[in-house]
Amino acid sequence: MNPIDTQSLMLQMRSLAAQAEAKPVADVTETAKSGQDQVANFADLLAESVQSVNREQHKSGDMKKAFEQGDLDIELSEVMLQAQKASLSFQAMTEVRNKLVEAYKTVINMPM
């Protein structure tokens, strides 16, 4: 496999961070057509996110297993990087779940 280009990786991370900060909330709400579409889009987004985390976890496990079996195409640094990606994506998903549960409890406990 190719060695990891840390400079390129950092540039990609900075680019994604800039994109995440640059999108105002008003633009997000304007793109939604109706309340039902928002719920469907949110459910699709949530399902897609869980599947993405699952893919990262499986990819990490596969790379670890291949490295342990002596595959010469996989370097230790790649295995460690993928393991960290999988760990971070899982932690992020857990935090999102916790916030959703907290928001649900808040809405349920609101007086009518």
UniProtKB/TrEMBL annotation:
It holds the Pfam family FliE. The keyword Transmembrane helix does not apply. InterPro entries: FliE (IPR001624). The gene is fliE. It is found in: Bacterial flagellum basal body. The keyword Phosphoprotein does not apply. Its main location: other. Belongs to the FliE family. This is Flagellar hook-basal body complex protein FliE. Keywords: Bacterial flagellum, Cell projection, Cilium, Flagellum.
